[in-house]
Queue: 2 jobs
Job 1
Amino acid sequence: MQQPVISVKHLYKAYRTSAGDFPVLKDVNLQVLRGDYVAIMGPSGSGKSTFMNILGCLDMPTAGSYVLDGYAVATMPADQVAKVRNQTIGFVFQGFNLLARASLLDNVALPLVYAGVSKEERHARARVLLEKVGLNKHMHSHPNQISGGQQQRVAIARALVNQPRLILADEPTGNLDSTTSEEIMAIFDCLNQEGITIVLVTHETDIAEHAKRQVRFLDGKIVQDTGASASSAENANV
Amino acid sequence: MFSAMLGEAWHAMGANRLRTFLTMLGMVIGVSAVVLMMAIGQGAEASVKRSISAMGSHLFVVLSGPPRMGGARTATGNAPSLNVRDANAMSELYGVVGVAPVTMGKGQIVYASNNWNTDIIGTTPEYMDIRGWRLSAGYPFSSSDTRSATRVALLGKTVVQNLFGEDADIDAVGKTIRINQRPFVVLGVLESKGQTLDGRDQDDTIIVPLTTAQRKLFGNQLPGTVRQIMVQAESDSVMGMVEEALNSLLNQRHNIREGADSDFSVRNLTAIANSAAETARTMSLLLGAIASVSLLVGGIGIMNIMLVSVTERTREIGIRMAIGARERDILLQFLLEAIMISIVGCLIGILIGVSGAILVSVFTQAEVIISSASVLIAFSVAASIGVFFGFYPARKAARLNPIEALRYQ
């Protein structure tokens, strides 16, 4: 019996504004099993980005529970949440978000700094991953010297460097042309085949089709979940 | 992990060199000012202190006069009212460790074709101990010389230079010179004491036995009388008591009634010197205080730039948080940058301050003292300024909301 990597139950999120509370997520339930490959879709304003931030432990839900890999993140102290972000989750952003001043090698090795890994090991592990994404020749280049697709590959290498259970990708192909997007998605497909759980946000249907399961958000609710039956079956057992 | 952060702080400093340099400049100026001012202040203090110790410590000088000549008062020390027996009585007082009666005059000294006019001090062998005066060559005279009024003399450095030439201390010993036409054997040469606080050359002097001076050089109206008596107390704490005892002893010996004018005066030399030292110390404190203001300004400069840097790097902070940096990692990162700027600035400042102090001493001949304490103080103050002024921006960075930070353009 598999433990779900992500288990979200009755999740609510509201933003406090001067005009009163503004609800963004209303009673969201989602289970993601190990090895799953989920695409979250929906128009802008549907709450998918907020949901992603909560999944990434960057934001906390107003109500409901979120259990990530067995940790009830919502009740954990900030330092432990940082540790979860560091060791359980790998982030890939739309805007790549590499450090402009650091070399590709240092960019990839950065999460290991916060994991307290020695310099030799950091660089060794970063090198292996740069090789995996095919950028080992540019190791000492800086992000502004390589193309967007290459930058995203570096970002993926960075997300993988701490061997996370879960990759969260927020519109990973949003800034890329279609050819490059396919290349990046090929990497994600490959990673998923290796057994890594992937959750990605996208609004492009052809990108979403790479995933095994599509979840559609509208107005702060999940309106469609192609893997819902499997998930609810799990629900019954939990 | 700490070394990785140090490396990053170093890189961040290098990222905008001009800005880092200008920020550092505040620190550099502040620290170099503190080091330089403290060096000059401590130098002044030390030279005052040396003048004091050259005079001798815990000293009183008892001067004769003003004598009463009917209603008119003549100048202090004109007609000696003190005598050697007063000195002997003083040495019996509790807390007094040395007494030296002194009579003074001028004399023309001749050796070979050279001649010189200088002060002549007639005193007892205790004088040397009281003034803490040692010989650079030869021997001091003894109490038997005082008893038998032998014609021996101890020459000050300036006198030796004028009669025998430079570095002739050893040559001078044993030679016969003439003081006011009378032959004297040079028994020893006095160590150099330099100038007094008022610029008088203390080495321009000759010391002879008291009796010799009285009987064979100056003559004397009243045998045994002296112009002044130097008295050394045991320690600072008994100075007050000794002063009172000296007054009451002399009043009693000179039959002076209570309320009447005394024919002597007791002066505390150390008190005068101490106040000079106090002035020097106050000056050096004042200089240090003014210099520290510039340190403060430098610290504010660091805080300002760190705040700008935090704003500029908001996105970077967001990225770092997303990939697992804890609040304290971010705090440490920015704090380290601030500390590094201030410490590097401080090191440069120390370098400039020290070389400035050396330049000052070379060009103005003023004494400067670069103590490791002043350098250490400047260094630790600079480091604490880095922590103090770096903390607020660093905390601001650490408290950023990661989502907003990631969205920041």
Job 2
Amino acid sequence: MSSKVDKVERHSHPPDPVVGGGLSGADVVDDISAHVLTDRLGQIWWVALGCSLLLLTVFAISVAVLLWKGVGVWGIHDTVGWGLAITNFVWWIGIGHAGTFISAFLLLMSQGWRTSINRFAEGMTLLAVACAGVFPLLHLGRPWLFYWLMPYPNRMALWPQWRSPLIWDFVAVSTYGSVSLLFWYLGLVPDLAAVRDRATGRKKKVYALLCLGWRGSAYHWSYHQRAYLILAALATPLVVSVHSIVSLDFSVAILPGWHSTIFPPYFVAGAILSGFAMVITLAVPLRAWMKLENYITLKHLENSAKLMLITSFIVTYGYASEIFFGWWSGEVFHMAHLKHLFTGAYSPLWFVVLLCNSILPQLLWWRKFRTSPWALFWLSLAVNVGMWGERYIIVVGTLYKDYLPSAWRLYHATIWDWGLFLGTFGLFGSLFLLFIRYVPVISIHEMVELIKEDKE
Amino acid sequence: MSQVFPKKLDGVLRIGCFITALMFLFVLLTLIGLTRSSWVTGENRFTEQPIPFSHRHHAGELQIDCRYCHTSVETSAQAGLPPTETCMTCHSQLYTQDEVTAPIRRSWTEDKPIRWKRVIELPDFVYFAHNVHVNNGVACTECHGRVDRMPLMSQAHHYTMGWCLECHKDPARRLRPEEEVFSPEWSPPDHQQREEIAEFLMKKYDVELSRLTECSSCHR
């Protein structure tokens, strides 16, 4: 489905422009706000929303059944206490990382090219964190008592167990969620004002309320710029810290396959790999559908692809070091773990993981591949699958054969495990569709700034 | 570009946000307060019994030992409630025609136990052992209050986990010598020796502090 614009652009390099089509600032404002104010997305949007809502229903049913009957409806048992739920949690939260990486880290690094993809990547982050948060919450068994994870004045005179990584996790993820939300909204305020200025009737009032009376005065801009930078500075460490802490959930335990110092960097790299894969998965259809080729240019896709290549190497290094240190330790259970990895019940999945995360990304060495949107799209899907498989291998592949051979037991996810996982795509999809319909999907003010800077 | 809303809406929005935050805080504080109130915990609540039995009269004025009725307190997790026979040891002779004691005689003649009502209801996941406490120097009144002054039995404390832990974290000053466990009141002979006696009793009863706050000490 390679469109004409792609072909034209592919032949016009080097270098690929950050903004295509020779757009002026005013064009950008009109174009992007028109996405929000007029029904440009057409019937496909309704069809997509319908499908997402259907999946959301699956989500609702899965949650309801779980709450009614308890975690016994899942496939978890004494040996594998963390099943699909924790796999999905780690996967979703990892996906969020690319958004923060793009919006905060690259902002501080003054990477102008981030501008057009940061908004929807931030949106992706927020929704991915929301989907991720569902799993550990439901995995508690009694989710209505989730506030026990917080230190609050209670009659039991109890604090949370600070030595447990699970409480670090709770703090890290909730911080991540709130900072991401603030960052996203703060960046939106001037854009919502731009939409307000072009809207009429009731829509005008809604956007006026949401943009908090933004007038675009020099004072407003100066405060906004400062607040945005401060939030970026706050969010940047989160790119590293959140998944590091998620990795500690595993590596603090003394199980072979978990107890490894490589875990934090290895998890962060995996998070950014899967995050950029998801950015590409979303960006390629989005730019074709919403005709955003002038904003999300081949340069963006290529840069994202390069980051995928780098992080794929780090992840592969993680695999290699895990195998090496397992062998180096010479410890019986660790050696057995490695043997099970390559020959055990889950070894087919392990080879899929290696294929998707280590071997297929090697295609990104070719510029031609990096600049073919739909080829990237299929690769990114493979990486998404591979990263999910990696988390499954980490969670289940370690737990199913622990130190007590009589307790060894396979894990089979039930229909309600899969229902909930599938359901989170409904949650993500519905909210993402609403997001691209009602919120400027490209950061208008930053685009205009970029165009002005380009001209100067 | 003219503004959509009048200027005063800005103030309204700010006040609205402030009030919302305040409401949130108010709800939170109310909940925190409510869970501690006697309305929820039942502190000082009287429980109506089939017979208006007075601990003040029996344990206070007559100075009947707690163990005369609660016989298993030293040997079992449950202190035990007296069977009708225990009441009849005296009431076959005393107040034999009184209206108040009529349910005892009815229970005796019909051979149906009196249905006493539980005063202190701990959750099912808490395993409180009476014998462990009284055999290690924790007096009845430490938890039950001055029963010898209660005409009708009421909850002396709120019996929340925090309340239990207060003592489990620092039991030393609440311990008594063996022979004083069943006395309503006791103070060490010389007030200045309190700390010294506490230390002595901790050693005597071999109290291991770290084990007192282990989850499985009370939740099994």
